[in-house]
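User: Before I run my own analysis I want an independent prediction to cross-check against. Here's the chain; please return only the structure tokens and, at the end, one sentence I can use as a sanity check.
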Amino acid sequence: MFAPMVKTEFKKLARRKLLWIEMIVRGGLIVMFFGSLFALHESGLLTEDTSEVSDVIAWPDGLITALGFASGQGLGGLLVVILVSVVVAQEYDWGTIGLWLHQGISRRTVLAAKFAVLLVAAVLLTLAPLVIGGLFSAAITPSIVGELDLSQANFGELVLSVLRTAYSLVPYIALTFLFAVLTRSMAFSIGVGVGYALVIEGVVSQLMILVGGLPEKIAMWLPGLMAGSLSELNQQIVLSVNGEEREFIVEYLDPNLAAVGIAVYTVIFLGLAFWRFQKQDISG
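Assistant: Structure tokens:
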């Protein structure tokens, strides 16, 4: 029953306007960001030289910038929180979950199908800014550096970077999934998820990094900063072709440790969600 449930859930997701709105929002923000910098560069108002602008919006560096918008450390975490809350919590109000259970489908199958479809959504939400940003970057690159050389991007690494970026969103999916099941409230689960992303990841973690020492080491184990560790590997889109070396301001965890840490967060949050759902009175 799992495969048919996944198919049904994906059809439901595809019909939700929110998914397409979020994809458009991400793509639109990339266009606005790239377009603004390009306009300032062309007008001569930017004080930075051409190489610095190129490192942000020109091909192939623009691909890395676009993926940064999609990662758990960027806007991606916030938007995926909203999507998960709607997909999971709203179904309690609609009575859809109870309907599936009454038809004999197991609770684990219902929840697992929803999570699997949300993983697909994470990939789609990662691809949207990458495709739009990549096309825009390719279009403006000749005006910035004089020519467009598509071979400057390692497309094998680009595929891996998409998967890494989508993977960085998984803890946010699992955390919001848990609170959506616990509270059955779309508003509450959105509030918790967005509050965590903005306060803990956005403010507290940065303060811990500034303090240094043990607080900084603890901060490195938060999902957002582990996402930053994976995002460093996305630099290979460029570095593996051009043979460049770049220094990073923040010293993140080893990417392998970060990947394991993200998996641990996901298993804990998702495990708690499944445990609570198994005992939950859906009719209440």
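Sanity check: The two ends are 26 Å apart (CA to CA).
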